[in-house]
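User: I'm writing a tutorial on reading structure tokens. Could you give me a worked example: one chain, its sequence, then its tokens, then a sentence or two explaining what the tokens reveal?
Assistant: Sure. Here is the example chain.
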Amino acid sequence: MARNKKRQQTRRHTEDSQAAEVDQQHPLEMLREDHQALQGLLTQFEKGNGRARQKIADEALTMLDIHTQLEEKVVYPAIREATGDDQGIDEAEEAHHAVSSIMKELRKGKTKDTRYAAKMKILTENIQRHIESEEQETFPEAEKADIDWQEVGQETMALRRRLMRKMGGKNGMSLKKAA
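And here are its predicted structure tokens:
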């Protein structure tokens, strides 16, 4: 019995340590990891079939929901305020809007629907362009700006945890670190 208690304490300490490490992760690095995970899922979808494809699509859509909210509610406002780049952030938010429209249609359908794969392809292309723009333009400019990244990171992780609880935590991206 004492051994089990010790294991539980050790596991809790390890989980607390991991959560603290994640809280210290730079928010832009976290978003880059999300991009990589999402690109991996989209590639898996393209190669998959049947039920596996539906599961992958559902996971990708959940990931996109969470990622988009992190950017729009925490990261983009910090970047906009520090850089004054209204046009760049407006364009990023419009890209999110376009992706959101496609996501709504995908959620209404199933992978066996005749146009589902075509919609996923259009979604993937939009996401690829958006990621490229963020990683080559928006993020590098933001990294040069006077932003309290520790505070932004803490806010981002707090929101991520809330969204994960709300959405059931059914996601494999770097969100798995948020638990």
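What the tokens reveal: DSSP finds six helices and no strands in the chain. The chain has one domain: 2-178.
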